[in-house]
Amino acid sequence: MEECKIRARDAGLHFDNETLEYIVTNRDLLELSPKGMIPTMYDYWVNDVEILKKKGIYKLYPNNPYETVINTRPAISFYNDNNPDWLNIMIFYHVLAHIDFFQNNIFFQNTWNYDFAGRALADKRLINALRSEHGRWVDYVIEFSRSINNLTGYHKITALNRQKEEHLSPKIEYYFQVFLQDYLKKDINFIYNEVNKYNIVMENIPDIGESIFLAEVKFKNPEFDEKFKRHAETQKKQTLYTDIIEFILDKSTFLNKENNLWMKQVVNIVRDTAIYFEPQIRTKTINEGWASYWHEKLFLQDKRIKGYESAFAKINAGVTSISRVGLNPYAIGLRLFWHIEDNANKGKLEYDFQKITDEEIRKSYNKNTDKGQEAIFEVRKNFNDFTFLNTFVNQDFTNRFNLFTVGKRLSEDKQSIEYYIKSRKAEDYKKMLIESLYHPPLISVDTGKTNEKNLYLIHRFEGKQLYKEFINDTMLAIEFLWGNKVQLETTELIKPQKKGEEIIKKRVLYTCENKITKKTEL
Fold first, then answer.
1. pLDDT at res. 181
2. How far, in Å, CA of 407 to CA of 412, rounded?
3. CA dihedral over 287, 293, 297, 302, signed as positive or negative
């Protein structure tokens, strides 16, 4: 494994030298998986249910999980005790690429400065101590907090961290995040060129670089200052608060009573744990694609593959083969990195190529830039699943790997269901991939309608309605934590009564008071 680290670093991967590896049994893996493979995580009854369920499944379908790697300091990885040595070498290359991703991708930057395993152990001890004093109420608070632990304002936290890290001024932040994208509606290539221009100016003349850059922006866009001023005024008047748990922690008179302060500790533990795992949920495809790219590349160059080529090919194909029905994040991520590397080597990521529409010219285009490795490392650093898929899945990509969306219908004899190719368009394939991504609802606190007696939440409708069967229990949980009435404004879809009629959108208001939830139309 130490030799693997040397080869990985020589290839350009960057990671801390200290790592921890454990050889474990299938039983160990079953018991650790509900805790996100963090051995020191706090105990919770739902985890016990998951363990029993997984044990039942394992009895029916025994299998050997290959590995699991955890983003801690130092990074921890687990290996099945049934794995042969050559397989563990291949897996360790995969693990090292994951560690490189954890420690260099900007969406993980809030995890870089502390050891989560140590913090989790402290949290576990605190919860055990609180259980001895408050009994089952501790588990109620955990359960109520976990019901809204996807409403943590993760993107706001990431943006603030990055702004602080890069020391971006409000005007520069506004220019790149709002002015270029929302006002001028520039494409991704134009924005990249502007970012590069800004970086070059700041690198050469850091003291006055920003002033020079903004002077050019104002020369080309005289309305910039006025637009920024209006944006700043709007931000001051902003009445929506996107981190529901944080707002409740700060403003709930119930939680801030002296006898209930212990509950805030529990809620904070749940919130911090959820935020820690957020980037992993949002980078599944790109992270697994990166790890698959490197385990294949590095193991094929390793002399220890000798004699195991066929076995490696079989296992690798099982992990990275394209699923014609369903989605394999390993496969999609791996092929996108291949595609990006090849395009960068040929100069196809440059703006001049993007303007070409002739298919034959696009196929033969090659400037031999040899920038493939540089490009994929930049992608590893700056992208998450959404930006990764939205930027690089295009018609060239779907054509190259013969990708398509699949539909299903009744066969002609109506005795079975058959699958068929529904579309080969890149837009349809990209839409399918993006719709499969983790995307919690965007729910905000309207501070103008909120007071001590009432918490008013607004759901921004993005094409999907909330799961109705979850609303009642979640509202009950929020009412407990807030200590008073809770209202939720959302949009629901009503199916048409007759064929040909359009789906009706209705704005409704859910009100939970004294543990009873009622719905009214707005």
1. 85
2. 15
3. positive
d(CA 309, CA 317): 12
Give the span between the Cα atoms of 328 and 325, in whole angstroms.
9
Q: What is the pLDDT of residues 444-495, one digit of tens each?
A: 999 889 998 999 999 999 888 999 999 999 999 999 999 999 999 999 998 8
Q: Nearest 5°: CA angle at 410, between 404 and 413? A: 130
Q: Is pLDDT above 90 for 288?
A: yes
Strands (E), 453-515: 454-460, 485-494, 504-513
Closest CA to 456 of 410, 490, 420: 490
Locate the domains of the chain by residue range. Answer: 2-105+283-320, 116-153+242-280, 155-240, 329-435, 442-521
3-state secondary structure of 420: strand
Tokens matching residue 41: 């995580």
Per-residue tokens: 177: 């995040």
The answer to whether the beta carbons of residues 301 and 165 sit under 8 Å apart is no
Average pLDDT over residues 357-384: 92
Percentage with pLDDT > 70 across the chain: 94
- Residue 511 is predicted with a pLDDT of 97
DSSP state of 445: E
For 427, residues 6+ apart whose C-beta sits below 8 A from its C-beta are: none
Place of tokens 């039983």: 27
Contacts (Cβ under 8 Å, ≥6 apart) of 243: 151, 152, 153, 156, 157
- Burial tier of 206 (Cβ tally within 10 Å: 0-12, 13-18, 19+): exposed
Out of 44-48, 319-323, 358-362, pick the least confident: 44-48
Q: What are phi and psi of 407, to 5 degrees?
A: -115, 170
In the numeric block, which tokens belong to residue 355? 């303007």
Contact present, 400 and 380 (Cβ < 8 Å): no
Positive/negative CA dihedral, 174, 180, 181, 184: positive
Cα–chain center distance at 496: 35
Joined tokens for residue 226? 């006025």
Beta-carbon neighbour count of residue 262 at 10 Å?
17
Which DSSP category does 69 fall into?
E
Distances, alpha carbon 498 to alpha carbons 196, 206, 331, 464, 503, in Å: 55, 65, 42, 22, 10
Structure tokens belonging to residue 342 = 């090849």
The pLDDT of 188-205, averaged and rounded, is: 86
